Model the fold of this input.
Amino acid sequence: MSEVKPIRVVIVDDNPEFRDSARRLLEHQGVRVVGLVSTSADAVRHVQELRPDVTLVDIELGAESGFDVAEALHDIDGEAPARVILISTHAEADLADMIEASPALGFLAKSALSASVISAAIGHDGESRSE
Done:
């Protein structure tokens, strides 16, 4: 019998209120939030150290670009590239070309954030993986 393991997530967003709200929402839905960060440098460090199942990256990180963060996370050395989902309050249609050109798995509106949508995006079946 396989052990059910929660999805492990790092949230990268420069808004502390959103990070906290997203953490509470996702943890209530069974996601394990293993990191909350606000900069690209912290994102890269956390992803390297924690190897989350997916990293949620806000497209607008103050002076930084979430697209640049997605590129940096994708370029981390490892067995498999880090999985990134871009998030934003902006409409996906407004950013479609940039999202398509990025290494991110896709896009999720902040208002639609949920464990089930994240799980579907990364193909998580809840079964444990051999480490």
Observations:
- The chain has one domain: 8-118.
- Residues 107 and 127 are 24 Å apart (CA to CA).
